[in-house]
Amino acid sequence: MIHYLLKSQDISTGNIVCVLNNENQLQVLDFLGLQDTIVKDIKKHLKKKESINLEYFLGGRKYSKLFILIDLEQSSHSSVLFLGKHFPKLPDALSLILPESQNIVDIVELALLSRYSFQNYLSKKTPKVLELVSTIEQKKVLQNSEEKVKNIFLARDLGETPAHDLTPEIFAGIVKKNKFNHIKVKVLTYKDIQKKGLGLIEGVGKGSVNKPYMVILEHIRNKKNPITGIIGKGVTYDTGGNQIKPGDFMYDMKGDMGGAAVVYSLMKEIDRQYSDKNFVACLMLAENVVSSNAYKPSDILKGYTGKTVEIIHTDAEGRLVLADGISYIGKNYKTQKMISIATLTGACMVALGYRYAGVMGTDEELISQIIEYSKTNCEKYIQLPFDDYFVEKTKSKIADFNNLERSVHAGSSMGAAFLYNFLENKESYTHIDIAGAYINEGEAYGKMPKGMTGFGVESLSTILLK
Questions:
Q1: pLDDT (tens digit per residue) in 184-206
Q2: Domain residue spans in the chain?
Q3: Which residues, 6 or more positions from 251, have their beta carbon under 8 angstroms from its beta carbon?
Q4: What pTM did the predictor assign?
Q5: Which residues, other chains included, contact 326 with Cβ-Cβ below 8 Å and sequence gap of 6+?
Q6: How far apart are CA 256 and CA 239, in angstroms?
Q7: In the sheet where 93-97 sits, what is the strand order?
């Protein structure tokens, strides 16, 4: 991802990029022997105290173009938005030179993440090249950041992959083949799911030729410490089932496994950090399709612990697969905390758009940490309401619960309320709805591309590993 250079003279791309805040930092470009007119122009713009992207033609065989990003934003978030807007506009091959006073880690991560592109299916690929002039000490720090970026890219790549190449079985196989340091992987096949009575995920996935799978990732480092469960929705394609979605709303549903992609990438990030905290994650993988064998409105499904659910709408499938995961992990691992992550509701996207995830639940300590993190970072969260009223409204007259209550609206909160019913140990509970934040149908911003963003990997790994 990064080609590390010890000397500026080793640059080979010909396209030099430098981020500046003040005139004193210009000395980092002395090796170029810049013309006085260029230096004066840069100083002129620095004195204007405005952020701007400048481009200069150098004309040399080795150094052809110079790009100066003058970053004079007053907050870190504004700086991320400014640099994230301009880095993708630069040539594919870049040589980045930064003054020592700059935050090299933040800028390099931003340069990598904002320039992401999914090229797996292109016959002619255009690689993104980033050369970086750095010290040996900086390289060690940046290599750690590179690994984090790779895990975020993984969460993006999985979401961008067409559903025919990422069925539940294929997804499970990808996780199974990964070499972890301290994580044990267990895979439950469709037969295992049936045998164990996981009737909610079975109900959602039985209609597809690509049957459902569950993947459990155990990170148990110290048995004296409490265990946090993390459940990811992995609906590898969602047509809406027999209550089918309108065509215009179906294209991006290859990304409806975003919760599972984020949880998998999050666990990879946790694994490489050598934390002594205990986490057990579960990826709930299924396809929700139209077929003669698919579940139907008015069906009643029985979950892992025997609780029954009346099906009001087949496109409220994500909460069903998550509910079985919450019950299974809670019962078998005696979790103290539970987190669910999902592209769960269109209601969250309508309420918050594409730059915010909704967070809700009973774990006020964790939710407060998430909201605090959100104030100064690119991954933004808004707390949505959650209380007994919503939980009460999930009850059905002919089963224990229903999977949709139209009279209440508040779709994201109601999704979390439904899941709350399946906690086995009265865990402190946090639900994160990343519907718009992961499937970004809007525009690129900051570190986030248009399309699948990998939202949640960076923020949650930082917070959970504190």
A1: 999 999 999 999 999 999 999 99
A2: 2-136, 154-464
A3: none
A4: 0.97
A5: 229, 231, 338, 340, 419, 422, 423, 424
A6: 10
A7: 2-5, 129-133, 93-97, 15-20, 65-70, 52-57
Of 199, 173, 205, 201, nearest to 187 by C-alpha is 173
Phi, psi of 421 (to 5 degrees): -65, -15
- What gap in Å lies between CA 129 and CA 98, rounded to an integer? 17
Closest to 154 (Cα-Cα) out of 130, 133, 171, 135: 171
Is residue 61 over pLDDT 90?
Answer: no
3-class secondary-structure state, position 375: coil
Active site amino acids: 245, 319
> Which superfamily does CATH assign the domain made up of 154-464 to?
Zn peptidases (3.40.630.10)
Tokens 């044990």 locate to: 184
364 burial type by CB count under 10 A (0-12 exposed, 13-18 middle, 19+ buried): exposed
CA-to-CA separations, 150 to 22, 30, 146, 342, in angstroms, rounded: 32, 33, 6, 21
What would the mean pLDDT of 60-85 be, rounded to a whole number? 93
Instruction: Please state the φ and ψ torsions of residue 258, each to the nearest 5 degrees.
Output: -60, -35
**Superfamily classification of domain 2-136:** Leucine Aminopeptidase, subunit E, domain 1 (3.40.220.10)
244 burial class (0-12, 13-18, 19+ CB within 10 angstroms)?
middle
Angle (nearest 5°) at CA 123 between 258 and 3: 75
